[in-house]
Amino acid sequence: MKTMKTKIITFHYWSAGIRDLTTIEIQALFELFDVDGDGRISKDDFSTCLRRNPLLIAHFNHLFMHKDLDAERGLDEMV
Predict the structure, then answer these.
(1) How far apart are CA 38 and CA 16, in angstroms?
(2) pLDDT score recorded for residue 34
(3) pTM of the predicted model as reported, rounded to 2 decimal places
(4) What backbone torsions phi and psi does residue 42 show, to the nearest 5 degrees?
(5) Can you spell out the DSSP letters for 20-47?
């Protein structure tokens, strides 16, 4: 039986992949996406946050174009 790997983004990967923001802004954005508050952004957290904040899609859309959203490679690969 094939198992599915959990795709998680930790604050370490999140902060490494975001530039031009202060540490406080990066932390606030991470907390916005970490919907369940467990210190990690799961695929469900990410999707839920974007559904609740659709303007984020428009703001970050150019960063995600033609990118694989595989958390194993880290957020720095996406951005």
Answers:
(1) 19
(2) 96
(3) 0.65
(4) -85, 170
(5) SS-HHHHHHHHHHH-TT-SSEEEHHHHH
